[in-house]
Amino acid sequence: MRRPGKSGARGQRGFTLIEILVALFIFLTGVTGILALMTTALALHRDGLHVARATRQLDDVIARLQRQVSDGGHRQPGGEDWQDVAAEKLPDGTWCSVHFVPPAGVEPLVAEIRLAGSQAGLPATRPVRAVLSEGHQPEKEVQRLREARTRATGEKP
Q1: CB-CB contact of 69 with 134 (8 Å)
Q2: How many helices (H) and strands (E) in the chain?
Q3: Would the CA dihedral through 79, 82, 87, 93 be positive or negative?
Q4: What's the rounded Cα separation, in Å, for the pair 134 and 141?
Q5: Rounded to an integer, what distance in angstroms lies between the CA atom of residue 67 and that of residue 73?
Q6: SS3 breakdown of the chain: % helix, strand, coil, rounded to 5?
Q7: How many CA atoms within 13 Å lie on the side-chain side of 52?
Q8: Stated pTM of the model
Q9: Predicted pLDDT at 140
Q10: Under-50 pLDDT residues of the chain
Q11: What is the predicted pLDDT for the residue at 86?
Q12: Can you spell out the DSSP letters for 72-133?
């Protein structure tokens, strides 16, 4: 005769090895996905910090250029053309180059500024254009010139 309770109780205790392996597989799949998301988030955060740093540096370079141009700097010896800055190392170790786009007629002076981590990387970076003025122009005039340039080039403001 079979004893009630012994054979039935033995099969109901704990988990089988297959159940544990399936649970571990599901758990590790979730952990792997979370780790992948974290590494992506950290990379995007690092890129955002680099963009913010470059924006601050660009603002500083534009302000310095505006002061120098307003004071008559960056002129060729004849006074007709503008003298480019081939490569200049900024205080934080970043490299900067400036190319002045010759103004035509009543257009304002435009500078193409490049920032890079190394001097060799300057030619490969995309230039940022900045409108400079030779004198201290009112803010409304600068805004009017930017809007005219935007309409002429079809760029978004």
Answers
A1: yes
A2: 3, 4
A3: positive
A4: 13
A5: 8
A6: 50, 15, 35
A7: 6
A8: 0.59
A9: 59
A10: 1
A11: 87
A12: T-SB-TTSSSBPPEEEEE-TTS-EEEEEEEPP-TTPPEEEEEEEESSSTTGGGSPPEEEEE-
